[in-house]
């Protein structure tokens, strides 16, 4: 089952649901945070969706984590739970030929209860508003490019997790303040227990052993990637709204310049940008790992 919080995502949801249904997700649990664009009505009409609605503060709910934790405790016990935003599309080794259930079966057989992924910001060639995206279309026909090499990682001893940053947002917005660059390490897939809780979005989780999703004792673990579709043509309008609401960062004032720049439709593409091909390319670039799953 899949868990997600949404607000005004009517444009992304048709592709999102179609993609994850094809991967084998059988049920979706959404928390809608006061949408006004038809998202609520659209989700209510889906046969495989359970929907909760709230107009409370996204920030005060630890950016939606508390809402989803309650649902995961109530409905996720002993199930593999996929937790993703509407702008995150999961790819993993063999995802074009093997459903998610095959991955989770293998994870069960190898006694692993969590699966890690890097978030990769996808972007168009030219200004962000160059192409108009239509609901239901493949977003990667437009968001066809990504940064392949400018990533850096630290180990956080307190949570025993990696802290991964970099990519196009670091390159374009945060080179002078790298500590504020977005966090890109995520743990979107977990065999849930009522004793578990995400700490900061899906970047880290308790108990800490669930954060051991990367190299350990010399054995490379299988990992995936979350292709991030934030930079569709709607990003300018959404950035102006996020800047007004101040619900997406703990210290929102520090990100005013970031939102202002996004609202001006920048061009992220340069000669070092890579055209996205498939999961094999990401393994070749060492952005994700096939590990010992063959």
Descriptive tags:
294 residues, alpha/beta, 8-stranded mixed β-sheet, two-stranded antiparallel ribbon, 8 helices
Note down, in words, how this protein is organized.
This protein is α/β, with parallel strands linked by helices and 294 residues long. The protein has a domain at 86-284. Helices cover 24% and strands 23% of the residues. It contains eight helices and 14 strands. An eight-stranded mixed β-sheet has the order 3-2-1-4-10-6-13-5. Strands 7-14 form a two-stranded antiparallel ribbon. It has a two-stranded antiparallel ribbon with strand order 8-9. The chain starts with a strand and ends in a 10-residue tail after the last helix. The mean pLDDT is 92.
Structural class: alpha/beta
Q: Which bin fits the share of residues in helices?
A: 10-25%
Discrete helix count:
8
What is the N-to-C order of secondary-structure elements (H for helix, E for strand)? EHEHEHEEHEEEEHEEEEHHEH
Mean pLDDT, as a whole number?
A: 92
Describe the largest sheet: 8 strands, mixed
Lateral arrangement of strands in the main beta sheet: 3-2-1-4-10-6-13-5
How far is the N terminus from the C terminus? 24 Å
Q: What Rg do the Cα atoms give?
A: 18 Å
Q: Could you tell me the strand content as a percent range? A: 15-25%
Number of E strands: 14
Gross morphology:
globular
Low-confidence stretches: none
